[in-house]
């Protein structure tokens, strides 16, 4: 069962409070490059990105945020480090959310100014603790960046905001180590009711980072922890969204899409199933139907092995067979197999 956290409204997306787990990513351009940034965000939107974060390194970057937001349709979060003026300008530009750590801003009056401005516009703030940049005194106290140290750091950041009567808070605790990340999230989840943004940070390249993220994010979501996710990959952010959505789909959080079951093939398979299965997955991408489709290597065992699929095809000697709910329907030519399957799905 999912932990019921407080609901925080971020633009047109609700985070926590039992709302669907949202998937987010981050752009790779400085927002001064408006056209590139918008193009990248539109690409992310097209593959199902719910929220986008943009790094704001300079005041010139902050000045472009409203222009970017006017050209996109998902909420934009400004990622600010250290400089309070950037946060104030981002708020002025009407961003949907901020990612900043009040502890990094330093001066109490500056923090107060940011929080009052954010409060006035109901802009949520995500405080994000990264194991790699913990406060020095916490490292001395705990001897290493432990899960407990990360939690204490997050609670400190949260209390600064709470003392200013601010509660539109989202929290993240991340490390590149899966165990550290999940332990920290588990502990904080028992201590606070604010929604959690989860992910394994600096997870690696698309291949290794996908595996690490799936383990870490999957482990937490299976325990009911996590309200919004980010897969962090050294690669195209589009892949982050695809992987994030696939994690949610694999866990049954996204239902209105096609789930593909495909066999690993063995000596009984006489068709090029690998090419067909990959092509099928691509062509199913935009079909919004909660259907289980099987792509199996042989008609001897395939229909039986995939009998919980709604529909499927299995390789024959010189053809494919179409089957529905485990029962053979008809033979199809090899070169028409995928089109026939798509036609049948269309009718369902
Ligand atoms: S469905 Fe057929 S080809 Fe695929 S693994 Fe099973 S027996 Fe082998």
Q: Could you give the topology of this structure?
A:
Layout: E1 8-10, E2 13-15, E3 22-26, H1 34-46, E4 51-55, H2 59-63, H3 65-69, E5 76-79, H4 84-92, E6 97-99, H5 102-105, H6 108-120, E7 125-130, H7 136-142, H8 147-163, E8 169-174, H9 178-191, E9 197-198, H10 206-222, E10 228-230, H11 237-250, E11 259-262, H12 273-284, E12 292-296, H13 302-305, E13 311-315, E14 320-324, E15 327-332, H14 337-347
Parallel strand pairs: 3-4, 3-10, 4-5, 5-6, 6-7, 7-8, 9-10, 11-12, 12-13
Antiparallel strand pairs: 1-2, 13-14, 14-15
Helix pairs in contact: 4-6, 7-8, 8-9, 9-10, 10-11
The structure holds iron/sulfur cluster.
Structure description:
The protein is α/β, with parallel strands linked by helices. It folds into two domains: 243 residues, TIM Barrel (Alpha-Beta Barrel); 89 residues, Sulfite Reductase Hemoprotein, domain 1 (2-Layer Sandwich). It is 42% helix and 19% strand. It contains 14 helices and 15 strands. An eight-stranded parallel beta sheet has the order 8-7-6-5-4-3-10-9. Strands 11-12-13-14-15 form a five-stranded mixed beta sheet. It has a two-stranded antiparallel ribbon with strand order 1-2. Strand 9, helix 10 and strand 10 form a beta-alpha-beta unit. The longest helix has 17 residues. The mean pLDDT is 95. The site of iron/sulfur cluster (SF4) has 12 residues, from helix 13.
